[in-house]
Specification:
The complex is a heterodimer of chains A (337) and B (163). Chain A is an all-alpha fold. In chain A, 69% of the residues lie in helices and 1% in strands. Chain B is globular and about 45 Å long. The chains are: A mainly alpha (337), B mainly alpha (163). The A-B interface holds A 1, 111-113, 116-117, 119-121, 123-124, 126-127, 130-131, 133-134, 142, 145-146, 149-150, 152-153, 156, 160, 173 and B 1, 27, 31, 34, 38, 41, 50-51, 53-55, 57-58, 61-63, 66-67, 69-70, 73-74, 125-126.
Chain lengths: 337, 163
Amino acid sequence: MIEYLTSYDFIVLMIKIIIIFGGVMGALAYLTWIERKLMARVQMRPGPTRVGPFGLLQPLADGLKFLFKEDVIPTNANTFLYIAAPIVSLVPALMSFSIIPFGPSLQVTDLNVGLLFIFAITSLGVYGIVLGGWASNSKYPLMGAIRSSAQMISYELSLTLSVVGVLMIANTLSLAQLVASQQDTWFGFLPRWNIFLQPVAFIIYVCSAVAETNRLPFDLAESEQELVAGWHTEYSSLKFAMFMLAEYANMVTVSALATVMFLGGWSGPLFGPFWLRAGLPTLWFVLKISIFIFFYVLLRSTIPRFRYDQLMKFGWKVLLPLSLANILVTSFIVAIS
Amino acid sequence: MIQLVFLLFAAVAAGAAINVLIQKHVLYSALSLILMLTAMSILFIFLRAEFLAMIQIIVYAGAIMVLFVFVIMLLNLPADEDGVDQLRWLKFIGIPLGLFFLFFVLATLWNVEAPPASGTALNGSPRAIGESLFTDYLLPFEVTSLLILIALVGAVVFAKKDL
């Protein structure tokens, strides 16, 4: 153990963890700025401009505000679960970053069941929402929590099934090998990305991912017009900030997963001197994730919310049969070729 | 070191399992069960059965227990009150049966032989499990699928009386 602590591998691992964790936390803070600014532009508003140039210091100001706000625990709330819920929701959301390949060597660890690990961890995140809503002992949060658990179970099915086609083509569950299997090009110019082989799966995945992360147009769990703020109505101060952080972390996770499975992960053109070659894959990866984030924010600012029965119908009667059909067709083609 | 981690999670699993039984509130029991399942899946990782560990969390902790918690929250059951034990006679049957079961488990454990250390026989990778499911155990696998399908149809029939 002592030898391991001083060994070279261990130090490298620690540096990787610090880089990834620090980078992700910083990115999550600035996601709030990107979302507010972009949404404001879509709606012809200036957005945050006061704190720093272009409002760039706004996330810092928000963080400080969250820190100093009064932390209210409702009188009739279940105190233990009320405090535990934000933690239960944030920890799984951050754990999934441990196996996401941000670059050829910028990955904390690679599991041979990597994809299943991410699905397992994100499926635990729903307990944060459910417990938070229940422990608040108030009717709007409970409504939000019940809606959310039904929604997440429904959409988790099509999310997981949409991936099966990609797995059959790539023949692996490890994220690093998934990226490695999409390195070459077809006909010399078309990158060998799974999105060209599995377009239906990609669309199903993106739809279910929006629903899984409780974002508009699927944010029935916190629909402001009906439920005040849904499951986190009673939360304030840092606990609310933790819920927010978990939501953004989940958004980045599903985007990163989509990039790894459908857009070739960190693969992209390499050029320039060696330091540029080392940094470019991570840059491509971040750029590809940003496309999804951009899409999410645009979706939020343009599309109205689904009705609850429409949401359930869409999940069970459209996405689920479609993903099953996709598996059937893909397995048939894989079997004969 | 690895022994210590194993003991930690074994203790968590055992403690949570006991907590499922002694908690008065149904929701706390359900949450303890989730903790127990998660700790169990970490024990599976120690046995090099990563696939089983992940499936355990996805299926039990992530899907089935969410439904349990969902139903408990929907019914909003109050905590059990003390002294109202309607199934008092159960303990007279339960304790002997429990001891009987414990005896069998211990007897089996006593006779079991240690598995080969370097495990080609105990390969828990997704590939190995998939291959054995679709070759050696194809019939049980298909029969189980059929069973689940029947259960599904049955649930729909129960839920919708007038189809």
